[in-house]
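Because discrete structure vocabularies remain unfamiliar, we first show an illustrative case, written as a sequence plus integers encoding its fold.
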Amino acid sequence: MKSDSKKPYKYDTIALGGTFDIIHKGHEALFARAFQTGEHVVIGLTTDEFVSSSGKKIKHTFAERLAQMNAYLSSNYPDREYKITELDQTFGPGMFTNNIQAIVVSTETAEAVDEANRKRRELGLPELKVESVPIVLADDGGKISSTRIRLGEINEKGNRSSL
């Protein structure tokens, strides 16, 4: 007899992506949503080449960012499985398969999913569901970002007072 128990996760597979140069409170909100709603979590981590081509300035290499992310995720989600893939373009190839049902984005980057969904429709794939996370603000009211942390304006938690 089949159980009527409710599926514990909203999605089988959910994705998110980014540079994750310095993991901060905003990133933590994205990871939290992914692990709350997806049974399987796929994280695209931008390659050094893609970061460079987009004009971003970062502190850590891909290998360092990958190690930092693995340490954070294994510490905060010890009983969960996840996959980190190299992201060398805006959307990785996995975005255009049936394997991923949803994507986690900040409200700041949610519009970019429209492009991915347009391409998915052209391929006859269902649109990605969007899990949008509000921008996390620092104690000064500005957004928390790796750039502001590198500049010494705030720390990873968004505080000015404990620099």
About this structure: The CA atoms of residues 31 and 91 lie 18 Å apart.
